[in-house]
Amino acid sequence: MEESVSREIVVRAGPERVFDAFTDIHDLLSWFADGAVIGRHAGGNWGLGWYADEESEEGYQVLGKIDVYEPGSRLVVRDLTFSTPEGEELVGMRLSVDFAAADGGTRVTVRQEGLGSGPGWDGYVAGIGPGWDRSLADLRRWLEDGTKLPGR
């Protein structure tokens, strides 16, 4: 079982603009999550939530602490906990996002570490790579075309 997953994409926007898309609530709600609480500094909270479906008040959430906050360069969130509507909690992950000027835009590299194994982890680990692929494509559409997620 993989202990980490990495993905990268080049987006036609400057590094600081792309960094903001990961830390500004308006941006996050446009391309990534249904809800967000972000403390935009080292030591701040980085919390996101997603409804399980349109008919439910139940959902998924991830919460961690910002360890590195370097606008336009690097964002690291430690002690990530992913919670499910069923009450499962997957703890101890780390998310690193690096931003570098490249090809007239920004190369975004996402690395999620600390993935576990076992019953609660199997589905999460299987979906995290494809989930980041889809989310980074949504990020590109948001920053390059202004296309928000449906319903936003």
Descriptive notes:
This protein has 152 residues and is α+β, with helices and mostly antiparallel strands. α1 packs across α2. It has a single domain, classed as START domain (Alpha-D-Glucose-1,6-Bisphosphate, Chain A, domain 4), CATH 3.30.530.20. The chain has a 7-stranded antiparallel beta sheet with strand order 1-7-6-5-4-3-2, with helices on one face. The radius of gyration is 15 Å and the shape is globular. The mean pLDDT is 95. The protein is built from 3 helices and 7 strands.
CATH architecture grouping: 2-Layer Sandwich
DSSP helical segment count: 3
User: Strand-and-helix sequence, N→C?
Assistant: EHHEEEEEEH
User: What would CATH call the class?
Assistant: Alpha Beta
The parts where pLDDT drops under 50 for at least 5 residues are: none
| Oligomerization status of the protein chains | single chain
Any idea what the CATH superfamily is called? START domain
Structural class: alpha+beta
Strand residue percentage: 35-45%
Q: Please count the beta strands (DSSP E, at least 2 residues each).
A: 7
| Average pLDDT reading | 95
Shape call: globular
**Radius of gyration, taken over Cα atoms and rounded to an integer in Å:** 15 Å
Separation of termini? 35 Å
Outline the biggest β-sheet.
Answer: 7 strands, antiparallel
- Tell me the CATH topology: Alpha-D-Glucose-1,6-Bisphosphate, Chain A, domain 4
